[in-house]
Amino acid sequence: MPPVEMVGTNGIELAVYEAGSGPAVVLLHGFPGLAYTWRHQIPALVDAGYRVIVPDLRGYGLSDAPDDVEDYDIADLTGDVAGMLDSLDVDEAVFVGHDWGGLLAWQMALFHEERTTGVVSFNTPHIPHWGLWLHNDLVAPVLGDQDDFTADPGRDPIAQMREVYRPGMYVLMFQDGDTADTAMNSDPEGTLRGALRKDLGTPESWDQMPAELKNMEYYGQPAPAQFPGQDVLSAEELDFYVSQYARTGFTPAINWYRNISRNWQAGLEVDQMVRVPSLMISAENDVVLRPSMTDGMDALVPDLEKHVIADTWHWTPEERPVEANRIVLDWLDRTFPR
């Protein structure tokens, strides 16, 4: 990783890792990630002639973590990124996100289009009005023959999720008290090993799994005696993640989820069309952010290119860095020739 610098933005300080020169590319990690998520992408982008800017986002890693839940809404999160660009004297950038970072990258295009040259999203499709977890590809396996549910972008998505999923569904569990926080904070290594896994099956096989898996009851559970699938991280990489979350805990990161209703409300009058060049990179075997969920996305993202990386689960930048880097660099070169 490049040296870290504390950068003042939007009333807090973010830990920012920066390297290279040229057009700016900002890398936005997901949950439970860190700037370190992008360790394989940074040198490839620098070697290709880009200025690479990689923050630990609000509540993560070495960055500030405000106490109030409301300090993690989308206005704050996008404001942090825009303010970071101001502090670094950058007018605009391509935003590359994974998981929650993908959600944030799409929101930058909606709330700060003038700062957004383009968007690259790993795994996370653009679904308007925070309807990601209400997509029919996720809802249908849960409801089965009772599936007469239709998501309504005009209703609070958390309220709708309560109509579909059991209370242990991870997004709902994060809304309801601190049971998940307590369990996860008591065992950072088990939480991270349980989350950062691969080779766990396919979307089709997942739909035949027990109800707790279809309901996405992933976090806040005791670590199993034997983890399924394979580790994404080496022992050394896992140690780095654990060292960061052992210090910060998971609560600040979970607070991002606790603002979904507020974010939905804030975006009701915001046009959901993404008007910048965009690249969507899906993972063939991601059982939550499924490639099929990008079908029809070009209606909201007219300048869209899509790729699917084969035999890959959820942690695409870390699982398949060579293929991920190749796709991103090729798209950047063709879309923004220099």
Automatic annotation (TrEMBL):
A single MF term (Gene Ontology): hydrolase activity
Keyword annotations from UniProtKB, A to Z: Hydrolase
Name of the protein described by the UniProt record: Alpha/beta hydrolase
Domain of life the protein comes from: Bacteria
Keyword Transport annotated: no
Gene3D superfamilies, A to Z: alpha/beta hydrolase
Pfam families: Abhydrolase_1 (PF00561)
Matches recorded under SUPFAM superfamilies: alpha/beta-Hydrolases
Residues covered by the AB hydrolase-1 domain: 23-128
Keyword Hydrolase: yes
